Amino acid sequence: MLDPYQLTLHSLTLKQLATAEQLAEVTGQDLAELEAGLEKAVAAGEVMAAKGKYMITPKGREVLDGVYPQAFTALRGTADVTDAMNAFETGVNKQVLSLTTDWQTKEIGGERVPNDHADADYDGKILDKLSRVVDKTAKVLAPVIALDPLVDRFLDRIRDALTRAEGGETDYVSGVRVDSVHTVWFQMHEHLLRMTGRERPE
Q1: How far apart are CA 69 and CA 62, in angstroms?
Q2: What integer is the mean pLDDT of 117-140?
Q3: Given a cut of 70, is residue 202 above it in pLDDT?
Q4: H helices present in the chain, as ranges
Q5: Which end of the chain is more exposed for a tag (fewer CB within 10 A), N or C?
């Protein structure tokens, strides 16, 4: 697994321009520890800082590319993890992407139009389906979660976003300016790909 400094660098591959507080929300790291890691990374030229936000540099990405194979050897050599990732890519990941499209648009008269979220029943059915897919994802990724609890943290954050969406905050399904289901799912997927050494499917 990644040590705290490496995890700080890694967090910037998941949320690419972020404050220290936002990165701590992603990883669950102690804020002071994370800030110390960022300061060290900036001094090493592995992270850029501007106006209170941080971004990983090509040098930082190069460091991580050298770290991942060793840090995640146990994951990459496990058949259960490979099977779980195959099931994730071909099943729940596609389902979430499809449901996100259904949330953003709806079919009227044979055409797809933007969803104005005026139909509570339509939205409710999608939220219910998303909730079931998230529960299924926890089961699909169980072998990965057993080796890396950060994946479980992503799923908890996705559930939190769903709860807010169910309370009427519609941006929390696919909004890009908040930690929506779609945003956190994308972060989780990127984390899984980096751990397992896979490429993002086309």
Answers
A1: 12
A2: 97
A3: no
A4: 4-14, 20-27, 31-43, 58-71, 73-76, 79-87, 93-104, 120-140, 142-147, 150-166, 171-174, 181-196
A5: C
Q: Which residues pair with 137 in a beta bridge?
A: none
pLDDT tens for 43-66 read 999 999 999 999 999 999 999 999
Evaluate whether 44 touches 9 at the Cβ level (below 8 Å): no
- Domain 4-71's class? mainly alpha
* Sequence spans of domains, the chain: 4-71, 74-196
> How many CB atoms lie under 10 A from the CB of residue 197?
11
Contact at 8 Å (CB) between 63 and 121?
no
Q: How far apart are CA 173 and CA 185, in angstroms?
A: 10
